[in-house]
Automatic annotation (TrEMBL):
GO molecular function per UniProt: 8-oxo-7,8-dihydrodeoxyguanosine triphosphate pyrophosphatase activity; 8-oxo-7,8-dihydroguanosine triphosphate pyrophosphatase activity; 8-oxo-dGDP phosphatase activity; 8-oxo-GDP phosphatase activity; metal ion binding
Name of this chain's protein: 8-oxo-dGTP diphosphatase
Keywords: DNA damage, DNA repair, DNA replication, Hydrolase, Magnesium, Metal-binding, Mutator protein
EC number of this enzyme: 3.6.1.55
Cited PANTHER family: 8-OXO-DGTP DIPHOSPHATASE, NUDIX HYDROLASE FAMILY PROTEIN
Length: 132
């Protein structure tokens, strides 16, 4: 089986809201709202891939100790199989900016149900409602 390992973060602010970003027009699944993150490269741990993606996509800095494993999703994706590792992150440096997306917003976990998200993300919403 050809697995695609992806890490993503639910950044949680002091009001218990979670950051989502809108996939830009030129990408697959364009327009959908997702958690910041991306593919784990062969030479990376999931945590270091996520730290890199948060820097590239939002311009923020965090560290492995601030990434708490929250859950995962397992979903067919074309001819591959996606394993999406979701972390909760409550501590970072900087102010998130939409550097690699069409926009970012902060929402309460219950509001995620009303957003257009990739299929793999749907089961993670209930998890965040319980966790955050
Ligand atoms: N970052 C992120 N990716 C997600 C989420 N849910 C989900 O199915 N994915 C999928 O996991 C993969 C993430 O890789 P990526 O963000 O680096 O994707 P990419 O634009 O480089 O891929 P592309 O070349 O297919 O457009 C994509 O196929 C994306 O659709 C999510 O919540 N966050």
């Amino acid at each position: 089986m050809d697995f695609l390992f992806v890490t993503a973060a639910a950044l949680v602010d002091r009001d218990g809201r979670v950051l989502v970003q809108q996939r830009s027009r030129h990408r697959s699944m364009a327009g959908l709202w997702e958690f910041p993150g991306g593919k784990v490269e062969p030479d990376e741990t999931p945590e270091h891939a996520l730290i890199r993606e948060l820097r590239e996509e939002l311009g923020i800095e965090t560290e492995a100790a601030c990434l708490a494993p929250a859950g995962f999703a397992s979903e067919a994706l074309g001819d591959r199989h996606l394993i999406l590792l979701l972390y909760v992150c409550r501590k970072w440096k900087g102010i998130p900016a939409a550097l690699d997306s069409d926009g970012i917003k902060w929402v309460r976990p219950v509001e995620l149900h009303a957003l257009d998200m990739p299929p793999a993300d749907k089961p993670l919403i209930g998890l965040l409602e319980a966790l955050v």
